Amino acid sequence: MSAEATDPGAPLRKRGRSRMDLRRLGRVALLGPVSRDRLPDAIGHVAEAHRAHYPDADLTILREAYVLAESSHRGQMRKSGEPYITHPLAVTLILAELGAETTTLTASLLHDTVEDTEVTLDQVREEFGDEVCYLVDGVTKLEKVDYGAAAEPETFRKMLVATGNDVRVMSIKLADRLHNMRTLGVMRPEKQARIAKVTRDVLIPLAERLGVQALKTELEDLVFAILHPEEYARTQTLLSAWSGAQDPLTGIADAVTSTLREAGISAAVRIRPRHVVSVHRVRAKRGEMRGTDFGRLLVLVGEDADCYAVLGELHTCFTPVISEFKDFIAAPKFNLYQSLHTAVVGPEGAVAEVLIRTHRMHKVAEAGVVALGNPYTQDGTTAHQAEPADGERADPTRPGWLSRLLDWQEAATDSDTFWATLRADLAQDREVTVFRTDGGTLGLPAGASCVDAAYAQYGDEAHGCIGARVNGRLATLSTVLNDGDTVQLLLAQDTSSGPSPEWLDHARTPGARIAITTWLDAHPDAAQVPHRSRPDAPRPQPQPADGTPYGRGRAGRDPSVAVEPPGAPVRLAGCCTPVPPDAIVGFTVRGGAVTVHREECPAVARMREIGRAAVEARWNDSDDWSGTADYRVTLVAESFGRPRLLADLTEAIATADAAIVSATVEPPSEQRVRHTYTLQLPDAAGLPGLMRAMRDVPGVYDVSRAQQPAATG
Fold this sequence. Notes:
Layout: H1 22-29, H2 44-53, H3 60-73, H4 86-98, H5 102-109, H6 113-116, H7 121-128, H8 130-140, H9 151-163, H10 167-182, H11 189-209, H12 213-227, H13 229-243, H14 248-262, E1 268-273, H15 276-286, E2 295-301, H16 304-317, E3 319-320, E4 326-327, E5 340-345, E6 351-358, H17 359-367, H18 400-411, H19 415-426, E7 431-436, E8 441-445, H20 450-458, E9 465-470, E10 473-475, E11 486-491, H21 510-522, E12 561-563, E13 570-572, E14 584-588, E15 594-598, H22 602-609, E16 614-615, E17 617-619, E18 631-640, H23 645-655, E19 659-665, E20 672-681, H24 687-695, E21 700-705
Parallel strand pairs: 2-6, 7-11, 13-15
Antiparallel strand pairs: 1-2, 3-5, 4-5, 5-6, 7-8, 9-10, 9-11, 12-17, 14-15, 14-16, 18-20, 18-21, 19-20
Helix pairs in contact: 2-4, 3-5, 4-5, 4-10, 5-8, 7-8, 8-10, 9-10, 10-11, 10-12, 11-12, 12-13, 13-15, 18-21, 20-21
């Protein structure tokens, strides 16, 4: 099966299998059921394709599903004049070619019975089990509607809801659309264009995200033929002109095959022709087409390690085009795609693009999630699993982007909002994974910010987000997250707080944008209040030359510190406010006094840089600090803004028997407030307890010792 066949109307089929004649099958279908000991002739193609992927599959359930579908649809005709049964047959064949398991094929045969016939879900459940019933019900929820501007968005909204717990529902929908696109010629041109545009905007990106390249490429060609007939005709003419010429890729493929054989690497080398849209894109990019631009080489091997062995041989024996190298094995795409991409210069100077992958990777590259089989069994075989009581199930094949779509579609207030955000989200082609501090992960589109992470983790509670720590450091909400970052979102205690209009400038995900817009629409006055993305950096306080803005009156009267030479006036530096048992060092300043700093104080490094000699300093009675008195310390409290915060903090300080010498409260920014206190401690040993008491105040998320910048004087 080739996903890059040049004929957009060609069905997906194995090499050598005859084309499925739908009119003949329609005549066969009208003959009615056959004896129970053999399959109806009408599904022979389906059985053959299915057995190619699952040799031991039990086809009894397929026969029973066909008999029910054929008898239920008997008398119904398609607009093309064919019996209606030919449609579910064709859809099922598409899925069988992709490697869908038996349960999916059974549901595909029955996907229109509940909607268009008298068959009920209870009947499906009774005859085929809960799993098939679950899938048929999911597809049935996509009601028949006119393909109008308002109707189609709502249809796909329902599709997302129905698909939410099982991607196989979407797989059936994609195959259904492909067959409808193949037979679209019986409709009016304007209706063809309408359906083609929706297919282009939504279903093709969905096929891409599910990794079903075989469906995506054919849908692209069919849409291209309808929406751009002149360009399509020109490209087809170009392909026809080259089809009879000597293919330069043949010589390069032979050379690659010989090289790998000599290296002892077992590999299959194939030429994969580009499909129509792919050729059109290459032509638009490069202008003049080269002979090797009409296809690519595909090298298939057995193991992952063999892929890199092939790459090494190609880059050694041929001249590589380094700019074309991409490793999607070490870093798979969001849609499960894995492959090595490179380009080499052939013996006669022609450049050939090369794809290197294992047979398993190739199957997934062609069929995406369809190739993974039944997600609820270990081996991909058929299972009849009862639906949980709450109607929810976790699908291990469901990508993170689909989970996000399901979350925000519930918040979209109308079809226009849903449609715009759906298209925007599908336009994203890369994801990043960030880690939460509780051990969980968040999957976000590339370029997502802390705003997006907040809404992805907390939903509407993120309205009160006031900041974040990224990799342990405070960061603005506008910070763009990279793959592998660890993010901790900080929420305000005040539940009435809300987002700033500026957040929309940093929100990439539909969920975040919808939530912010909804809140702002409900609080129009809030949009007029100026917001800042983060608190201002601590403003340097005026300081004397020795860097001691506080405690200057203590010089010469601090018996707790001994310095060399003895007897010199001593004062504790206000920039770092040392207390026992901090490691300390002194520096002589003007007037002969010694200022004592904590060893890690920035002022110490600056004084040493300019050559200032350090003075030895130590605490007296270092074995027992409980009797020392009158120590000053500067603490910085980071907190969420709320009523009575200042009163609660000062009460906690007073309870610890500390006196406030001075205090600075900076203006709040996005509900965050920074308090700076210089405190007089009756007992240096009480500092850890004081800091704990301040951290326990509701709304305070960090308390630290101040490290004010200091001049050297």
